[in-house]
Amino acid sequence: MASTDQNRPNILFILSDDQGPWAMNCSGTEELISPNLNRLSETGIRFENFFCASPVCSPARATILTGQMPSQHGVQDFLRSGNSEELSEEDKSIQYIKGIPTYIELLKERGYSTALSGKWHLGDSVTPQAGFDFWDVFATGSGDYYKSPMFKDGKLYEGDGYISDVITDNAIKFLDEQFNEKKPFSLNVHYTAPHAPWDRHQHPKDVYDDYFKNCKFESVDWESTHPNHLSKEGASGSIGHTKLERRQILSGYFSAITEMDKNIGRLLDWLEEKKLRDNTLIIFTSDNGMNMGHHGIWGKGNGTYPPNMFDTSVKVPTIISMPNHLPQDIVNFDLLSHYDLMPTILEFSNIEHSENHQMPGKSFKKLIQGSKKIDQKPIMVYDEYGQTRMIRNNNHKYIHRYNGVECEFYNLMADPKETKNEINNPDFAEIIIKMKRQLFDWFKNYSKPEHDGSKQLVKGRGQLDIINSNREAFAQDVTFLLK
Q: Which helix (H) or strand (E) holds 208?
């Protein structure tokens, strides 16, 4: 059967899509129905200050798998091209992280059975790669929740049912096949939820209608439209201009999370029925955050141009659970990032990695076990999106822009919702100079010259190809909503 050896735990990695850090019942949004995320939190550690490496899909996903920053692995924006020529005559197949070691490959080399069920969105969707043996993936970066295009064994097929159900069905099929094996498994379940579309016909009508009729959405901020907001075509989905539009959009967004939550419950039930719950490291997180009216934005980092680095965009909901090995029902406030996940997973699996991987992150296994010294805790996190970069500690956030647009500085102690840019306030001049220097020094260590995002014309409109000096790799069709 699957591993029961605590030195080689099974790993279940659950990834949602465009889920804000606020978008769980257990994180304070009581109107949102997510009992299984609550269940996971009650049997594990919920993180209040966990960050993505870039507030948009593909770069963040590449960082999770490789442990590298976008300026290292070269995926700088969501991938608008390269899924498969089988989907469109205009498309092509590009393997964007080919040749970069992933934690999946290292687990596979040490005897793990590896699987991906769900969204890939790192290029070529047809070909199993990055160390995954089982490969049943959503064919594109986003799309309908019903009759979704999928790839398995090199063949295109149409998902039979609601996509969150289909992804979970495929994951459980792998688990059932794996159960009688004697080696541990590493299963990645990547949901498309709660990414747009959020229309009523995209989600189970009873769930959507219940939210639409009965939820006031008082827990979700709704502010005046951000002056740099991109048009509907340039944003992540629909835009809630009116009360009715907002109610329709949030009904779909909440429905997608609730339906995903039901399926997370199915995975937990399977582990408990097979008595594998205590020896399976479960990690739940999202690829990036999401604004659903917060700061007047309907989208993530690329909901605006220049990209925004608000906490609602760069923070991600994160829960880690492994009963009897990790504390339960704990909230952690340490500053951690997706780039810390690969070394942490490898340490849990007792796998050493080469320093040649040049990973900026550190394992936080001992930290969450309570045995790491306070002075060893991370005190800064870093983020990037092309020519926009961020450094943040518990008290302050500095955002640097290389394209001539004004930089930003927020005093998080007095202004936790980041409402006032203090970049020109002389009271913070020394802090800004220090944080700017720290930002430059850090990215000097974790950027490859050919992939350095500060030198790339990333507009948040999509990456079209592997970065190459002979051609433009990024779409430039920026259209503003208000200008």
A: helix 205-214
Q: Are 286 and 19 in contact (CB under 8 A)?
A: yes
- Distance (Å, whole) CA 447 – CA 209: 48
Tell me the two tokens of residue 228. 């740099």
Q: Which residues neighbour 260 within 8 Å (Cβ) at sequence distance 6 or greater?
A: 16, 164, 191, 193, 194
Q: Is 79 helix (H, G, I), strand (E, B) or coil?
A: strand
> At residue 159, what are phi and psi to the nearest 5 degrees?
-60, 135
Neighbours of 415 (CB within 10 A): 13
Count of residues in the chain? 483
Q: How far is Cα 344 from Cα 347, in angstroms, rounded to an integer?
A: 5
What dihedral do alpha carbons 60, 185, 137, 230 form, nearest 10°? -20
Q: Find, among 354, 213, 244, 239, the residue nearest to 298 by Cα.
A: 239
pTM of the model: 0.96
Q: Are 400 and 389 within 8 A, CB to CB? A: yes
At 256-273, the pLDDT tens digits run 999 999 999 999 999 999
Q: How far is CA 483 from the centre of its chain?
A: 30
Apex 432 CA angle, 457 and 439, nearest 5: 50
DSSP state of 319: E
Task: Please answer whether residues 73 and 448 qualify as being in contact, where contact means their C-beta atoms are separated by less than 8 angstroms.
Answer: no
* Domains of the chain, start order: 10-379 (3.40.720.10)
Q: What is the pLDDT of residues 408-463, one digit of tens each?
A: 999 999 999 999 999 999 999 999 999 999 999 999 999 999 999 999 999 999 99
Strands 10-16 and 298-299, sheet pairing: unpaired
Question: What amino acid occupies position 341?
Answer: L
Distance CA 62, CA 319 (A): 20
**C-alpha to C-alpha distance for 198 and 190, rounded to whole angstroms:** 18
H/E element, 265: helix 243-273
- As given in the structure block, the two tokens for residue 335 are 């500053």
User: Whose structure tokens read 């439209």?
Assistant: 225
Report yes or no: 46 and 331 within 8 Å, Cβ to Cβ. Answer: yes
- Taking 60 as the threshold, does the pLDDT of residue 384 lie above it? yes
Strands 134-138 and 113-119: parallel
- Give how far the C-alpha of residue 347 lies from the chain's centroid of Cα atoms, to the nearest Å: 21
Six token digits for residue 51: 């960050």
